[in-house]
UniProtKB/TrEMBL annotation:
<feature type="domain" description="KaiC">
    <location>
        <begin position="248"/>
        <end position="481"/>
    </location>
</feature>
<dbReference type="InterPro" id="IPR003593">
    <property type="entry name" value="AAA+_ATPase"/>
</dbReference>
<dbReference type="GO" id="GO:0016787">
    <property type="term" value="F:hydrolase activity"/>
</dbReference>
<keyword id="KW-0378">Hydrolase</keyword>
<dbReference type="InterPro" id="IPR010624">
    <property type="entry name" value="KaiC_dom"/>
</dbReference>
<dbReference type="InterPro" id="IPR051347">
    <property type="entry name" value="Circadian_clock_KaiC-rel"/>
</dbReference>
<dbReference type="InterPro" id="IPR030665">
    <property type="entry name" value="KaiC"/>
</dbReference>
<dbReference type="GO" id="GO:0004674">
    <property type="term" value="F:protein serine/threonine kinase activity"/>
</dbReference>
<keyword id="KW-0418">Kinase</keyword>
<dbReference type="InterPro" id="IPR027417">
    <property type="entry name" value="P-loop_NTPase"/>
</dbReference>
<dbReference type="Pfam" id="PF06745">
    <property type="entry name" value="ATPase"/>
</dbReference>
<keyword id="KW-0597">Phosphoprotein</keyword>
<keyword id="KW-0677">Repeat</keyword>
<dbReference type="InterPro" id="IPR014774">
    <property type="entry name" value="KaiC-like_dom"/>
</dbReference>
<keyword id="KW-0808">Transferase</keyword>
<feature type="domain" description="KaiC">
    <location>
        <begin position="5"/>
        <end position="246"/>
    </location>
</feature>
<dbReference type="GO" id="GO:0005524">
    <property type="term" value="F:ATP binding"/>
</dbReference>
Amino acid sequence: MTTPDRVSTGNAGLDTILRGGFPANRLFLLEGTPGSGKTTLALQFLLDGRAKGERGLYITLSETGEELDSVARSHGWSLDGISLFELSSADEVLGRGRDQSVLHSFEMELGGTVKLIEGEVERVGPCRVVFDSLSELRLLAQDPLRYRRQVLSLKQFFAGRHATVLLVDDLTTIHGERDQHLHSLCHGVITLERLTLDFGAARRRLEVQKLRGVDFIAGYHDLVIERGGLKVFPRLIAADHPSPFVGEPVASGVAELDALLDGGPLRGTSTLITGPAGTGKTAITLQYLFAACERGERAAIYEFDERIGTLLYRAKTMGLDLDKHLENGRLTVRQMDPAAISPGEFAFLIQSEVEDRDCRLLVIDSLNGYLAAMSQEQQLILQMHELLSYLNQRGVATFLINPQQGLVGTMSLSSLNISYVADAVILIRFFEAGGRIRKAISVLKNRAGGHGDSIRELRVDARGIRVGEPLTEFQGVLTGTPSYVGAGGPLMEDRS
């Protein structure tokens, strides 16, 4: 939202990061490697001005007008109403006699180019200017000192003309080093990066390196380029999103399961369900999702591992009709592409789910899928901690599914050690008794309240989730190889 002392960047995410946009009538540097999105963001900046009735000028020293128009069309934009000053041909601009001067040709080209630019600015009288790019100006100058003087001259030229100027640079080095002098000349510096991963789509991110007099959101912010422009995902800061709520228990609809957590996990807490593949972790969360939707609440599951069709079919075999809640909008099921999602985009999707749809219960299935999607990220545990803190502050009941390694599993919780962050931990184990593979469920911790310390048998079948009596006649159930010490008491499936 543009204010008298701020100018919108044309990008909602970047405006959020800058706490409202660019300070008006200042000079800013937009730098980045090729393919990082500089031109797209610069065009968004000018198009936003056009929508507000402000004159815009795009000065291009590298790309032709046809190339810029092609970029705009790829996003569904038209550049009508934006002045374009193209300097792709030095012969046309400066004439063919320039090499006859006693001055070096590059001195004539540099001086003549700058004069033409200043003349065009005087003629158009723009409120917003994009100068693309400084690399060509640097080549014309040839000497670092002459280049810096020319950039300073441009800054002084624009200073009294009530224009917000965006200088675009492609991170060209001078004698193998970055030109930090340019950073000191500009009121603000925004850096775009493009990262190539070992597998999957390239990742892009943005950092505001400086912005004088503005308390911006520091750090890296993930972004994607899609039809319609750049989509920037501001880094999630949980402390910025406090919300009052009642920490009441969240029931599953299965009395024996709720009793394990003294009525159920509380709102504003996270519950980790861990165990080997096939023990029923997802089935338990489906029961919680169904119960929440039946109460009229909105719920969501972010699925990294399983196909949506398979998930809904499994719910039907348990007697849970999730399809009707998908139709009435109470339930959202999102299929995540592990090769394309970034931590920032994932956090943004969840934040939108909570704030736009008032989601009250959320499932992430699974942490292994999340870890695979972000395998080259360095601070996953911190990012997950911030995300869970945000959800807790918004009063959302969160369930995290954590498959243990191996079919039988070990007591190790995962390579992403999130167990200390979770408020409650539910452990499910296979064990063998009476010639059958059975399942046992127990609660290892519950910060938010009391919990049972017994180990009980778990059944998942057409009758849904069933929790049996404590396995008092077995020892070593959690090891997977228990010893029977009872007097022949029946197990759960033998009871009517």
